[in-house]
Amino acid sequence: MNQLTIGLLGCGNVGAAFVDLLDKRRDVIAARTGIDLRIGAIAVRSVAKHRDHVSNPDLLTTDTRAIVENPDVDLVVELIGGIEPARELISAALGAGKPVVTGNKELLANHGAELYATAAANGVDLLFEAAVAGGIPLIRPLRESLVGEDVARVMGIVNGTTNYILTQMTQHGAAYADALADAQQLGYAEADPTADVEGYDAGAKAAIIASIAFGARVVAGDVYHEGISSITPTDIEMAKRLDHVIKAVAVIEGDTSGDTPEVAVRVHPAMIPADHPLASVNDSFNAVFVEGNAVGDLMFYGRGAGGDPTASAVLGDVVDAAVNKAAGTSAKIGALVNARIRPIDDLICEYYLSIEVADRPGVLAQVAAVFGDHAVSIRSMEQRGLGDDAELIFITHTCREADVRATLHALRSLDSVNRINSLIRVVGT
Fold first, then answer.
1. What are the catalytic residues?
2. What's the pTM?
3. pLDDT value at residue 429
4. Fold of domain 2-135+307-327
5. Residues 6 or more apart from 318 whose CB is under 8 A from it?
6. Percent of the chain at pLDDT above 70?
């Protein structure tokens, strides 16, 4: 029986769940792998705060660097989050020949390529299943099972907070503010929900997925993102009438056929056909839909957050890293290539637009002419009364985003247009 000692950096919600899960599964893992996993040290901000919550308080320390440099620590699990000191600690561990398991999406979305290269140079694992979609196995299938697949698109719901809010608005008619308050009360949303509701969290995950799915260097700043705070009950109602559902999605598309690969990465609300598999993913659940040219369509579904599900992903990576270390090997990602990041203006899809206008003769013709002037073809139109004004709701044919934006710019200059209420992309077809 080989024994492997783990140094744990961070013992918050996920870290504590990982300690408990390892304790429960340790004997089973040893029987199946021949490796006895044990925790040798746990770094926390306050020893006093955690002393009553671990079985062996002597493992606690506030010195993260000492854990990384301890020769008795064979593998490091990083769950403190943020960029620094996490980047320095992970780099030091990898440089010392120690595998690292992390759930740090912010770090990987900004400095992943650097850390992957460090891991490869030292012949050790850097595994991060927990960084994307919580407990759902996604990264490992993308980097191993589907490495030979010509992936065309990855589209997913990768943020449980926004999915819960939109589910409440869709199924119970809740207003956005009320659904957000409910999510905060249940612990699905932080007191400051900006990272979730404005798409930053999902954007970081999308950058990681893009790098693995297409072997391209993609960072968080490359991701176009929009939040859900502008979604209205009218938008929800119209989506239902059109047999669609509004979801906040991450969409990653790539084309590696040319000399310079192209990758498009975006996060935004979208109308999805009601019969699409992602349309039935509700509440705080996550799902990722992978479209491959050989394998066809695959969907990975489950709990995308929470201590226990995320701890399960961490433990799975720890077991993989331990087995690889015992065998003297590692799972390499490979060199990431520089790719052209396709701008959002190049996107081609259908669009839902809601426009508030003066309700008088000739306005509809005037608005329709602006659409025509910018090569945006209207598939359907509906007018709703708003007292002295009217709301015009359009669904376009497939068109280019830059043309839609030019249309909206021109519409705002018309005296008869009071405001542009909504612009939602229609995807999933």
1. 205
2. 0.95
3. 63
4. Rossmann fold (3.40.50)
5. 6, 22, 37, 75, 77, 101
6. 100
